[in-house]
Amino acid sequence: MNEEVVIRAYRESDKPAVLDLLRRNTPRYFAPEEEADLRHYLAHEIEHYYVVSYNGAVVGCGGFNFSKDKSVGIISWDILHPDYQGKGLGSKLLNFRVARLRELAHIQAISVRTSQLVYRFYEKLGFKLLEVVKDYWAPGYDMYRMEYAAGSQTDADGGKV
C-alpha cells in the first residue's frame, strides 16, 4: 500500500475540513460550544496552523501560537479524524510542531492546554501536567495545563527520544 502523509500549512480552503474534524470529535473530545471558539481562532488568532493530509484527504490539524512576550510556544487546536486516531498521525503532527518551536531561539517553554480526555497523549510525548481547572472548557471538560519537558519524550514504542 502506497500511503502518503503530508503536514502542510493550513489554507482558508481547509476550513470546511477542519470544522468537519471538530464535529466528528464532538462531544467525545470537544464540547459543542467549542465550534464557535474554533471558528474565531481560524478567523482571528492563527499564527502557525497545519493540516495532516493522508493520501490527499485532510485527516488532522493543529497549530501553535505564542505568548505575548513570545517566550512560550502554545500548542493549539489538535484535532484528528476518529478513523485515523491511534495510527501515529497525531504524534507526528505534535512532534513536527515541537521541533519547529525548538528551532526558535526566543522560545523558553512549550505548553498546551487540553482536557482530561486526552492529556495522557501529551504526557506520553513529553509533556508534564502543571494545573487542572474543573469545567474550564464546558461542564465536564476540564482544562489540563501541561508543559513540554525536553528529554522526556518517548517514541511510539515507549523508548526515549
TrEMBL record:
Record domain N-acetyltransferase: where: 5-151
Keyword terms, alphabetized: Transferase
Organism: Pontibacter actiniarum
Matching PROSITE patterns: GNAT (PS51186)
InterPro entries: Acyl_CoA_acyltransferase (IPR016181), GNAT_dom (IPR000182), NAT_camello-type (IPR050769)
Keyword Transferase: yes
PANTHER family: GNAT FAMILY N-ACETYLTRANSFERASE, LD18367P
A Pfam family recorded for this sequence: Acetyltransf_1
Gene Ontology MF annotations: N-acetyltransferase activity
Full protein name: GNAT family N-acetyltransferase
Source species, domain of life: Bacteria
